[in-house]
Amino acid sequence: MNQLIRPPRRSIHPLKHLLLIDWLFDDLRSFLKAYDAEVARLVQRVASTPSRKPDEQVSLSNAAAPTKNTPRPKRLKGRLKEVLLSKLGKGIPKQKLCEELEISISTINRLLRANPVTNALAIEARNSRELAEHKAQWQYLHNLHPELGVQALRNTIPSIYAWLYRNDKAWLMAKEQTFVKPAKVEKHPIDWEARDSRLLSMIRMAYEAITGLQHGPVTTTELYTRVPMLSSCLENRNRYPASRAFLSTVLHRSKSTVLHGHVLCGKNSGFGSPSR
Length: 276
Fold this sequence. Notes:
Elements: H1 2-5, H2 14-24, H3 28-48, H4 60-64, H5 78-89, H6 94-101, H7 105-114, H8 116-144, H9 150-156, H10 158-167, H11 169-176, H12 192-213, H13 220-226, H14 230-233, H15 241-269
């Protein structure tokens, strides 16, 4: 019962309402009659309550005025307006003018919108100032590292080079002519004859080492094992003519030796002799 009659902290399920109505009233008709009487009483009480009169001391103009902590927009007139327009036309930053004249940035923007000529002058002056600043920074880096080329100096602070490239490419390209040119690495021609001679010497040494250990033929695999660079060198078909000629002779000689050995073995065993 306490859960039904205590002040609700949240919405109550309709079944609880029905349970309470059934406990207090005999039937639904008596509940509706009591409910309508209570509603009529509340309506009559509200109608008999006098309306609240407005406070005569409160002024409508004061109520519409901004609060104490909200400053009203400053109205620019006379000398202050002329000084502000002159300084804006010279490209002085807005934030600096706000601090100097104690005005808001919205006041300056509103003044520039009302004076498009001054706005154009301010934009041009600001662009010129930024261009001069970036040029000075690039020149300072060049003077600080005169030994560096364009690419090396560009990697130091890429943002400065990128900004100048977008906004004054002609000046940047002209300045690049004064930079130190990187030393060109001289490419010496390849002495293919000397390489062929060295490779031929290595092949001969490998061939002699193999024939000194065995009496059989010398194979290409054995030569590749003792001269690992031989395979990559032979990929260039237009180079190493002496080495190729020696390899052809050695490998052909080895094949001839193998064939001659097979013939001798056949004769000794009686194969291939004429029948009587």
